[in-house]
Design brief:
By secondary structure, the protein is an alpha/beta fold. The chain contains 3 helices and 7 strands, in the order βββββαβαβα. The strands form 2 sheets. The protein has a 5-stranded mixed sheet with strand order 3-2-1-6-7, sandwiched between helices. Strand 1 and strand 2 form a beta hairpin.
């Protein structure tokens, strides 16, 4: 990691496809803010009827495509919110159990606002709040 200048803003972000926890550590004080994704909240409601055309004993539908498109739109909105929040920091540590961090990094590489920022990315399993804070402190110093 390059030498830090005074006033460098750092954050650790534990994220998956449903939530991102921004862990900000300043003068041994920890503040955690969370951003939730709407994509993971798309669940089938019990008793909800299927759509499509009945063909013999099966049902034909293009709902999978529509659901996928809707989910992608919601994920893009979620990642955009994360990018806007990350714009405030110089050093960003991304960690979490899913592919969300690499999907976000792919978007970041195309964003000119992010080119002067330092990113640290690693995998992590599901963690408790205290484990997330400890990992962010360890990596960000």
């Amino acid at each position: 990691m390059k030498k830090e200048k005074k006033g460098t803003k750092k954050t650790g972000i534990w994220l998956d496809h449903s939530v991102a926890h921004f862990i900000k550590i300043k003068n041994d004080k920890v503040v955690v803010e969370s951003i939730h994704s709407e994509a993971e909240n798309m669940m089938r409601i019990k008793g909800e009827t299927g759509t499509g055309t009945k063909l013999s004993s099966t049902r034909s539908t293009n709902n999978e495509h529509n659901k996928h498109q809707r989910e992608q739109k919601l994920l893009n909105k979620y990642y955009k919110q994360l990018e806007e929040e990350m714009d405030r920091y110089d050093i960003i540590y991304l960690f979490g159990p899913t592919t969300a961090k690499s999907e976000l990094m792919n978007r970041i590489h195309a964003d000119k606002r992010m080119k002067n920022k330092t990113f640290i990315v690693s995998s992590a399993q599901q963690m408790t709040f205290h484990q997330m804070v400890a990992r962010a402190k360890e990596v960000l110093g």
